[in-house]
Design goal:
mainly alpha; 70% helix; 22 helices; membrane
Length: 560
């Protein structure tokens, strides 16, 4: 692929971020499975086991992101968004045909594949916007990952509000909306997701803009939680429903106010200096970027064809002494995927992340059954609490880790270990089944589950670079479906069914339904805590080098 031209100017990165907010909400369409799974079960005559297997397809499709991870270095972002839109349209379109019985006797395997294809659109959407924005804001990786992952976290509430208020709880209308509406939104916005010249790290307005974006996302999340709870307790007339949805849309486009402000009230031009070398930096470290022109070259290098020179030509040149043999990358440099998987830090991060997110998704997948087993008939509020705290965890992890990594050069994985300790407490609260602990435990688990995502994304970009960030982070994301399979399907589901059979019912009631599961998951998080602590100790010198001056340092290794 030819080298992409970066969009110059101070506004384009912020326009892209505002567009990314909508696409990230679109990338949360897999969270809608509980809203139409009952329709699939009743209309198609499926049993509960078949519905559960469809849920596995939902998780597999959402997290199978290796292909978009590879493609993000070969094709421009709009191409990935186009592929995602096509997958979304045909996948959900086929499921809609099955639910409305427009096409009857659809084979179960085809339905499974359709759901996998539909939710795989999330991987293409998410990879395109996350990789592009991480490269457009290379000095604020934690903040960017927190914001974008946070909007994915609240997407479930956005869809729930649309489903209950605009679509009147119709599963067929929801599927049609996902097939046409989501695809159309991404097609319209794909032009704005493009590689841009990064804003200056020394510009104080960048920090203010991020705070505004974070505040607007918190306002949106709070509004969604309140509106969802009200819609479950109060019946709204049509006009009020439309007003509520209109307010939601206004809050969703709020980040667009940043480039609008920059257009109406342009700032005085300043020299775009990303960072200045510190005199106390060891001479053994890689050269550092010191000007905006170098920054443009650095970011542009992400999109170069890595196979421009053949390995044979390089070997010949080395033999003739024309070039030196390229040194192996060090942590903080740009790694290829095959180089990253040879590092112990890679696998420490993968296992720590997989154990944390796998135990968290087990609670999410079984939250309705957990609530019912403990005497909560309507679990909507419980789901809303988990969703809101999940969002807070994702957003807060990015902001808090960014602050301390700059102030104390504290590795981001420190917060992964802290939150997994809190998850242990949450699982013990679940297992105790004491009065008043259900919502507290759910809030703790939701927040800590969200933290795992944002920390993993930013850490991967810092340890292994941004050039191959897409494929490396995509491999990390495989911990999600693997954890769901191990802990949710094989552990929680089997123990639940065993206890239910003892009670002579298909539905289990009482604390024993999940008690052993919670105790096992507490032990799992204990192992994850130990691994993340080991990783934190190992990578502390890397962060001391990367953030020695209080600002992230970009090495030139990708350009050499």
């Amino acid at each position: 692929m030819a080298k992409l031209v970066l969009k110059a100017g101070s506004r384009p990165p912020w326009v892209g971020l505002a567009a990314a907010v909508w696409i990230q909400i679109a990338a949360g369409n897999a969270y809608n499975f509980p809203l139409y799974s009952s329709a699939l079960k009743s209309v198609l005559g499926l049993n509960q086991q078949q519905v559960t297997i469809l849920g596995v397809a939902n998780d597999v499709g959402e997290n199978l992101s290796l292909f978009p991870g590879i493609a993000c270095n070969k094709f421009p972002p709009w191409a990935l968004l186009l592929v995602g839109s096509v997958l979304c349209f045909f996948g959900y379109g086929l499921i809609w045909l099955a639910v409305t019985q427009t096409v009857s006797n659809l084979p179960y395997l085809l339905l499974w594949l359709a759901l996998c294809v539909a939710t795989n659109s999330n991987a293409w959407f998410g990879t395109a916007v996350l990789v592009t924005n991480m490269r457009n804001f290379p000095l604020s990786r934690g903040t960017i990952s927190g914001i974008l992952k946070g909007y994915v976290g609240i997407s479930a509430s956005v869809y729930t509000l649309i489903y209950s208020i605009l679509l009147n709880g119709s599963a067929s209308k929801l599927l049609l909306f996902l097939a046409i509406g989501v695809s159309t939104v991404c097609l319209v916005l794909m032009y704005f997701i493009r590689p841009c010249t990064p804003p200056s790290g020394e510009d104080s307005s960048v920090h203010v803009h991020f705070i505004f974006t974070q505040a607007s996302s918190i306002l949106l999340a709070t509004y969604l939680v309140i509106t969802t709870i009200l819609s479950d307790t109060v019946s709204f007339i049509d006009s009020v429903s439309y007003i509520l949805v209109s307010i939601m849309i206004i809050l969703m486009i709020t980040p667009l106010a940043i480039p609008l402000k920059m257009t109406l009230f342009p700032a005085t031009p300043k020299s775009n200096v990303l960072m200045v070398d510190s005199p106390d930096v060891s001479t053994q470290t890689s050269p550092l970027i010191a000007s905006s022109s170098t920054s443009v070259a650095y970011v542009g290098s992400f999109y170069e064809n890595e196979d421009a020179s053949s390995d044979v030509e390089i070997l010949i040149a080395e033999g003739e002494g024309a070039v030196r043999k390229k040194r192996r990358p060090k942590r903080g440099d740009d790694f290829k995927f095959k180089e990253a998987i040879l590092k112990a830090d890679f696998w420490l991060l993968w296992f720590a992340y997989s154990l944390g997110v796998g135990s968290g998704i087990t609670v999410l997948n079984n939250l309705a059954q957990i609530g019912i087993s403990l005497g909560v008939e309507d679990t909507t509020t419980l789901l809303s609490v988990f969703s809101f705290c999940n969002f807070i965890g994702r957003l807060g992890a990015g902001a808090v880790s960014e602050h301390f990594v700059r102030l104390k050069t504290l590795p981001r994985t420190f917060w992964m270990s802290i939150t997994q300790v809190i998850m242990i407490i949450g699982f013990l609260l679940y297992a105790s089944a004491l009065d008043g602990t259900l919502y507290a435990a759910t809030a703790l688990l939701g927040m800590c589950y969200g933290v795992q995502y944002s920390i993993m994304v930013a850490t991967v970009s810092e340890l292994f670079g941004l050039k191959h960030f897409g494929v490396i982070s995509s491999f990390m994301m495989l911990g999600n479906p693997i954890g769901a399979l191990l802990f949710s399907v094989f552990l929680a589901a089997n123990l639940y069914d065993t206890e239910a059979s003892k009670q002579g019912n298909s539905t289990c009631y009482g604390a024993n339904c999940f008690r052993i599961t919670f105790l096992v998951l507490a032990c799992v998080c204990g192992i994850g805590t130990i691994l993340s602590i080991i990783l934190t100790v190992r990578i502390r010198p890397v962060y001391q080098m990367l953030y020695a001056s209080g600002s992230f340092r970009l090495s030139r290794t990708s350009n050499q």
